[in-house]
Amino acid sequence: MAASFRLDGRCALVTGASRGLGQAMAVALAEAGADVAGVATSALDETRARVEAAGRRFTSIAQDLRGPDAARGAVDQAVAAMGRLDILVNNAGIIRRADAVDFTEADWDDVIDVNLKSVFFLAQAAGRRFIVQGGGGKIVNVASVLSFQGGIRVPSYTAAKSGVLGLTRLLANEWAAKGINVNAIAPGYMATANTAPLRADAARSAEILARIPAGRWGAPADLDGAVVFLCSSASDYVHGTVITVDGGWLAR
Fold first, then answer.
1. What's the pTM?
2. Residues 83-134: pLDDT tens digits?
3. Any idea what the CATH number is for the domain that residue 179 is in?
4. Which of 98, 143, 151, 153 has its CA 20 to 30 A from that of 83?
């Protein structure tokens, strides 16, 4: 691997790291040389095993990320365990599906709190840490193809992911001069727990696949290259951008 893509000596905090996209990105960062603190509300044993198999340290943080105190707490725990923080990957997210006319306030608030509010307050806590440490830092927010499109039956998810893209650009504008890179990855239709209901619906799955030029659902490992790039010195002059990893979905 080219030296500019290596992450040796760096410490990363990855949210939603127990499975799916978060686990894959945590492992990819470890394989590139980073120590990893993983945040989740479910067991992180598998992620720990894979990170340690790559020869890197792993710290488990059991944390519900709703609320600014929770975000600060996760960052503080990561720093206490690893000694510093260089990278934040804001991946944790949930989804609720219902027709817009039936969508509840509880489903709206739950998704916005996890998918948007926590993204800001985690970035704020990490940004403060980077500034105190000096030397900059990397923040990668996980957006979505629905940051660009409306989707159907996921109003709070679409609103949150649209907000994530806006926040990414705002934070990049404020922090680029401080050496802090804030960028985003927008996954397309990935084979994860969030899309299990869609993949189980034969008609809906066929409809989605027909729209994807690559002809398949994405796999969590498809994000490896994008996240390593955005967390490495290879992206030092990349600010406020979004890399779509969608099999060509948005190009269609």
1. 0.96
2. 999 999 999 999 999 999 999 999 999 999 999 999 999 999 999 999 999 9
3. 3.40.50.720
4. 143
